[in-house]
Amino acid sequence: MTALTLLTYIAAALLLQVAAGMGVAFVRTRGQRIGRSEAPIERHAEQAAAVPTGAWSGWREFRVLRKVFEDRVRSQCSFYLGPVDGQPLAPFKPGQFLTFSLALAPQTAPAAKAAERPVAVVRCYSISDAPDPSAFRITVKRAQAPAQHPEWPAGLASGHLHDLVHEGDVLKVKAPAGQFFIDAEVDVPAVFVAGGIGITPMVSMLRWCIQAQPQRMLHLFYGVRHGGELAFKEALETLAQQNSRFHLHEVFSAPQPGDVRDMNMHHTGRVDVELLRATLPHGRHRFFVCGPPAMMSSLVPALGLWGVLPQDIHFEAFGPASVPPVAASAGNTQAMGVSTPSGNTFDIHLGRSGRTLQWTGQDANLLDFAERHSVAVDSGCRSGSCGSCETRVVSGLVTYPHQPDADMAPGHCLMCVGVPQSALELDL
Ligand SMILES: Cc1cc2nc3c(=O)[nH]c(=O)nc-3n(C[C@H](O)[C@H](O)[C@H](O)COP(=O)(O)OP(=O)(O)OC[C@H]3O[C@@H](n4cnc5c(N)ncnc54)[C@H](O)[C@@H]3O)c2cc1C
To answer: What is the arithmetic mean of pLDDT over 44-72?
Structure first.
């Protein structure tokens, strides 16, 4: 990083801090302070969601109205969901997600098999379309066992949704949530960078922008291995043909014969800063990034090193945090990374079970710590999104490497992303 770039970051960070102190409205992605909206965020929310209010707390039942595969290899399936109570849908900001509680059947889940009854798991899925008053759409990719461990079980929730949830079935869903959503600053071109299933929040943001921000320049870089894995291919290519302000770039890391046809739209390799630099027009852009861990951990820091301001980098990782704290040091002087000060050990007292355990900094978060000590904690997304592991902190201080998506009641913490900064007593 050049001295000039570093100074720019420091100046930007100071400005943001000063502005925050003055009560200026900011929106946040996970752990990153991002740009000030021209319009207050409340107005943005109204613009983003042209549907009647219908927010709810807790679980609400939704019926699967339609199930549609979105890619040639049938690994990504959309579910259209209508509320069973017939009441209006909640407004949402394009980019946000829904949280599901799924009752896994004994035939799919080892835990359910052992218990001989369905076992509930909680998972989050981004809304994959612009606001529609009649239904939400989510799109779920079947999670396979990792290539290096084919003996491990395949993804539980995604397998259940693909194989055992059918049209007419009812699912339990929490209201839209999340801090990764499109902004209202139409003068700054938006660059959506998606890897694989990270396309879902991008499609929602993109479709909304095309309707609500027709003057905004939009770029989508969509990385997959080959054309068979492209979801929403026809819809995206049609949008690009019909909207001169939307530029689509399909990027294939392992193209198959016939994949590379139009060199303006198709690229071979990975979505990296070199491709962005070679393709984007000169000037400021706002980046929205969502993809697999390898993309998140390389591209997000690289954008900072390229000189993109922290407030122009928004990202969301699906699942346990895959953006290391280096993302903060690479471009974000807002203290994003927190970890236990090295060498500190703390007593963690579990009030309900009467146990006192010692935190030595060996675990990434309190959930891993609890599980290593065989303490049962409800959990879902393991990334601060669903709120399942929310636990009351009787005393002590818990901090977060990234601002969690899930809201917490005062005096509570999220175990899956929380790190102690002092001795703790937890209501556990
Ligand atoms: C905010 C947010 C939005 C999201 N949006 C989407 C979306 O739009 N679409 C989407 O498809 N997903 C999305 N996700 C991811 C989704 O929530 C789930 O994490 C995903 O579907 C996998 O869940 P699963 O239960 O199928 O897999 P899991 O059962 O959780 O397994 C995950 C992986 O771990 C492997 N595994 C199994 N056993 C082990 C073991 N012992 N050790 C290590 N690994 C093991 C599995 O083979 C699998 O590959 C989102 C996540 C978040 C947090």
So the answer is: 75
Among protein residues, the one whose CA lies closest to atom 24 of ligand 1: 155
Do 213 and 289 share a structural domain? yes
pTM: 0.83
Residue 336 lies in a domain: no
Please indicate, yes or no, whether residues 393 and 324 belong to a single structural domain of this protein.
Answer: no
**Nearest Cα residue to 160 out of 204, 80, 106:** 106
- Same structural domain, 240 and 324: yes
Q: Name the residue of 93, 96, 123, 229 to mutate for ligand 1: max ligand atoms within 8 A of Cβ.
A: 123
Q: What is the pLDDT of residue 338?
A: 52
Q: What is the CATH number of the domain that holds 416?
A: 3.10.20.30
Q: Which of 68, 209, 188 is nearest to 137 (CA)?
A: 68
What pLDDT, on the 0 to 100 scale, is given for residue 38? 25
The CATH number linked to 42 is 3.40.50.80
Q: In the structure, what pLDDT confidence band is assigned to residue 297 with cuts at 50, 70 and 90?
A: very high
CA dihedral 320, 80, 230, 319 (to 10 degrees): 0
Q: Do 90 and 167 reside in the same domain of the chain? A: yes
Give the structural domain span for 206: 3-48+185-331
Tens digits of residue pLDDT in 227-269: 999 999 999 999 999 999 999 999 999 999 888 777 778 999 9
Closest ligand 1 atom to residue 141 Cα is 11
Residue 154 Cα, ligand 1 centroid: separation in angstroms?
9
d(CA 92, CA 95): 8
Closest residue to atom 43 of ligand 1, CA basis: 152
Q: Are residues 255 and 318 in the same domain?
A: yes
pLDDT number for residue 374: 95
**In angstroms, what is the span from residue 8 Cα to ligand 1's centroid?**
38
State the distance from the centre of ligand 1 to the C-alpha of 292, rounded, in angstroms: 11
Quote the pLDDT of residue 119: 84
Q: Spell out which residues line ligand 1, taking CB within 6 angstroms.
A: 97, 123-126, 138-141, 143-146, 152-159, 178, 197, 200, 316, 318-319, 381, 383, 385
| Residues 209 and 130: beta-carbon distance below 8 Å | no
Residues 199 and 325 in one domain: yes
Residue type, 361: G
Q: How many domains does the chain have?
A: 3
